[in-house]
Specification:
6 helices; 226 residues; alpha/beta; 6 strands; Rossmann fold
Length: 226
């Protein structure tokens, strides 16, 4: 990926940044000159993804030229369900990169376990809501506080990864689709709340993307075709 330095000198945080969409965004930001701090759960299953991300980031650094900058990558374990994780990630990014500004926040961490509605357990519903919606709220709020109250001039960009599922129902996603609709609504309201501070707030609603979350579901040839 060529580096044109669209984000040179900027600082970003990304939750769930070692796999899937978050990982792709992290690598794209690095290639554009942005310093990126990613959050991950630090589970044993995360280790290979983190190792390969660090290797890709290191490889990107070798493509730097006298006129282009490749961003630096750092990572911090944390569970977005914990209200303390968002503020910790913000502080970590600013400290690690010796930056006085948080320019970009991408709230991406999420889970999606397919389950039939009639058999869906309270624990699965609660965990999905706490991760996808509560986690996004805490992350976005932490970034917004930094961008509005603790840097001069105020401002920045907050992006939350919602889903086309916010608009389209799914029979095995009755616990998941409401959280993504909530993320979309959260960003609509955050845009109004943060506009006076010069902070842009947007939700992205991707369609089906083959990631570790839906790999099992997409093994069905009929589903892939549709």
């Amino acid at each position: 990926m060529p580096a044109t330095n669209l984000l040179a000198g900027k600082t970003a945080i990304i939750t769930g940044g070692t796999t899937g969409i978050g990982r792709a965004i992290a690598l794209a930001f690095l290639a554009q000159g942005c310093d990126v701090a990613v959050n991950h759960l630090d589970l044993p299953s995360d280790a290979p993804h983190l190792a390969s991300l660090l290797a890709e980031a290191a490889a990107l650094l070798t493509t730097a030229t006298p006129t282009t900058r490749i961003g630096r990558l750092a990572h911090l374990p944390g569970d977005v369900r914990d209200p303390a994780t968002g503020p910790a990630l913000v502080a970590f990014a600013l400290s690690t990169f010796n930056s006085s500004r948080l320019d970009i926040c991408v709230s991406n961490a999420g889970i999606c376990t397919f389950a039939p509605f009639l058999d869906l357990s309270p624990d699965l519903f609660s965990n999905t809501v706490r991760t996808n919606l509560d986690g996004s709220f805490y992350t976005v709020q932490a970034a917004a506080r930094q961008m509005a109250l603790h840097q001069s001039p105020p401002g920045g960009s907050i992006i939350a990864i919602s889903s086309i599922s916010a608009l389209v129902g799914g029979g095995l996603q009755t616990h998941y689709t409401p959280t993504k609709a909530g993320v979309l609504s959260l960003m609509q309201s955050a845009a109004v709340a943060m506009g006076p501070y010069g902070v842009r707030c947007n939700a992205l609603l991707p369609g089906t993307v083959r990631t570790q979350l839906n790999e099992e579901d997409l093994r069905a040839e009929e589903k892939r075709g549709s």
